[in-house]
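Predict both folds.
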Amino acid sequence: MIKIGIEAHAIGMKQGGNERYIEGLLRGLSKLNPPDLQFIVFLNHMAEIPSFLKGHPSFSFEKVSTSSIKRLMLDLPSKIKRTNIDVLHTQYHIPPFVQIPSVITLHDVSYLIHPEFFPFFERIKMKTLMPSSIRKAKKIITVSQFSKREILKKYGDIDEKVCITYNGVSEEFKPVNEEKIQQVLTKHKIFRPYILSVSNLQPRKNLQGLISAYSLILKKKEDFPCCLVITGKKLWLYDEIFSAGEPTIKEKILFTDYVENDDLIALYSGAEMLVYPSFYEGFGLPVLEAMACGCPVIASASSSLPEIVEEAGILVDPYNSQEISSAILTLHQNGNLQKELKEKGLKQAKKFSWMECAKKTVEVYRNLVSLL
C-alpha cells in the first residue's frame, strides 16, 4: 500500500480557490478510491473532517497549525516522518526539511506578475519559498494551459515537471428550484433582479472595476433595476473596495461576506448574470460554478478565463469599465442572449469534473512511486 500525504490546511479557512481545489480533489479521490493508495490528509486544527470523508477506509487525518511557519517547519515534517508517507502533495510550498518525493499544485504565478496585489509579507513569503519548492518538487500540477505557460516563463525550462490537471465542479452545483432560491434571497435580504460577483475581497479580483462599471450604468439609467451582490470573504487590501462608488450607488450594492455552498448555489441559480472581471486567474472556479448552475457569465478576456469559458460567456477587458458596463447592459436587455448563454454554460461546465482531476492526479502519484 502506497501512502500519499495531502496537505489540506485550507479546508475550513473560507478563502476561495485553494480550499475549493483541495476539497474538490479529495472528493474526487474518495469516489475513485484507488485500491493501491492510502491517503493521510493534513487538516488545520480548527477544521472538521469533510462529511464525504467520514468513515472512508482509505483516508486518515492529522491536524496541523494554521500558522504557515509552524506548519511548514514543525508540524508537517514531524507528522510525515511518524506516518511513513511515501509521497507528499501540497499547494505551493514544500516543507524545507522534508526529503520524500513531493508534488506541488501551483495554481498561478500572480505573486510575480502582480506583486502590487499582495500584502508585503505574502509577497516575501512567496518569492522566498517558491524557488526552493519548484526545485524540490518532482512534479508540478497546474490548472490551465495559461498557468503552465506562465510558470515556464518565470521558472525556466522545467517543462518535464509541469502537468496540467483542470479543476472540476462539484455535482451539487446545478440549477435549484424557485422555492430554494427565494429562501436564500430572503435570508440575505436580496431582491431580484441582481448581478452576482463571487470572489474573496482582494485587489486582484478587480471588484473596484466592477463597481465602477456598475456606477456608469446607474448614471446613464437611473431606472436600472439590478442591484449588485458581491459574495466573498475579506482577504487583504480590501478597504478601497468598500470606499468605491458614490453614496447613492452604494445603497444598491450588497456585500454578503462568505456564504456556504447551499446558499451560493441558490445565488448562482437566481442571478441574472455573474460578472467576474478579475485581472489575473490561474483557473477561475466561480465562472465554472455559475455556468453549472445555469447562470450567464461575463468574464475577463485575459489570463486563463477564455480557456475555461470558451464560447459560453461574454469576455471583456478587465481594465475597461466602459466595456464591462456595456456587456452588462447588453446581457440585461437581451433575453435570448441570456437563454443562449445559460444553455452553452451548462454544456461547457460538463467538460470539467473532480473525478477527472483525481484520475490525473493519481497518475502523477503512481509515476512518482515508480521512480522510487
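Second protein follows, with its predicted C-alpha cells after the sequence.
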Amino acid sequence: MDEKEAVTIENEHLAKVYQKFPVVVTKGKGALVWDINGKEYVDCMGGYGVCIVGHCHPKVVQAIKQQSDILITCHGSLYNDARSELVKELVNISPSGLDSCFLCNSGAESVEAAFKCARKYTGKHEILAMTGSFHGKTMAALSATWNPKYRKPFEPLLPDFEFARFGDIEEVKSKATEKTAAIIVEPIQGESGIYLPPDGFLKGLREICDEKGILLIFDEIQSGLARTGKLWASQHWDVTPDIMCIAKGMAGGMPMGAMIARREITDPLKPGDHTSTFGGNPLACAAACATIDIILGEDLAKRAEVLGQRFKRKLQDLKEKYKIVKEVRGLGLMIGMELRFDIYNILMGAISEGVILTYSGKNIVRFLPPLVTDETHLDRVVQVLDGLLQKEEKNRMSQ
C-alpha cells in the first residue's frame, strides 16, 4: 500500500473524529518514527503521551511475543498469572494506601470506574471537577470535562457534575457540599495547555475532602508514570489521593488503563457491578509489567527531570528571543509553549522539517516525547522551532 491509498482509505471509511496530520507512520523506534516513504521524524507527540518508554522498546516487544505464544485472552472471571503479576507491581508503585485495582482499557474507562466507586462508597452523587479539566469522552468522563467544544454536541450530559476554578481553593470550598461524592483533578492539566496548580492547591483539596467526607480522585492518565520527573505528578506536592486513574503509557503502547483506590473504597462493589471483557487481558498485562520494569530499571523519572529541565531552558531561550512566544510551562517532559497566534503553520512546518508536535487548543504547542528521548533529539526540535518562529515573527513584522 502506498501513501495515497492509505490516506484515501482512512479518509473515506473512518469516522472523521481526528484532526489528521499529513503523515502515514509505518515504523517507530525509541523517540523516532518513520513514514511510509522512509522519512524520519522526532516524535514529540508520543501517541498523546502513550510512548513513555518509546516505540517498540525491546523489553515490551519481547514480553508481548512471549505472552502471545502462551495466552492472549483470559476473562476476569478466571485467575491469571500475568494479571496477578501486574496487580502486585501496581500496588507496589502506587501511593501509600492505594491497594485495590480495577483494570480496563483506557483512561476514560478508569475515570468511569472511579465515579461509580465514589458514588457507591459514599452514597452521594455529585462530582466536582475543575475548569480546564479533561477526563475523557465517554459520557460520565465527558460530564467532568470542561471544554464546551467537547460537551455541547452531546448535551444533555449526566446531571450532578459541577465545576470550580482550577487553583481557586475558596471556590472549591463553596461548591463542595454534603452531596459531593468526589472531587476530581489532574495534578497538572494536560489537554487545556499544561497548567500547574498553584502552591497549596492540591493540599487544600485534600483537607477539604478529609473535612467533608469527600473522595479525592487524581487523574494521572497523562501526568503519571514518570512523565513529570516523578513517578506520580502528585508527588511534587506530597499529596495522596483516595483514587488514582492511570492509562496512556501504562502498557508500552498496548491499550490499558487502571483505577487504583483504597481497598475500603472498592469493597462495596459486588460481582457484576463493574466489569470489562478485555480489562486485564494477559497480553496487555505482560506489556504493562515490562513497561513498569523499564520505568523503574532505567530510572525514567530522573531522566525526564534532567532532560525536561534542559529542554525547558532552551524553550525559554526561544521565549526571550521571540516576542510571539507568550509562555513556557511544565514539569519533566510534559511541557507547553503558548504562542500569540494560531499554531497550525508551526505544526505543519515542523512536520516538513521532520518533527511531529501536538497541540492544546489553537495556540499552545504541547510536548509529550518518549522519556527515552535524548539531548540530540530535543536539540533538533529546538532548532526546528527556532527557524519556524523566526520566519513567523518576520512575516508578522512585515505585515
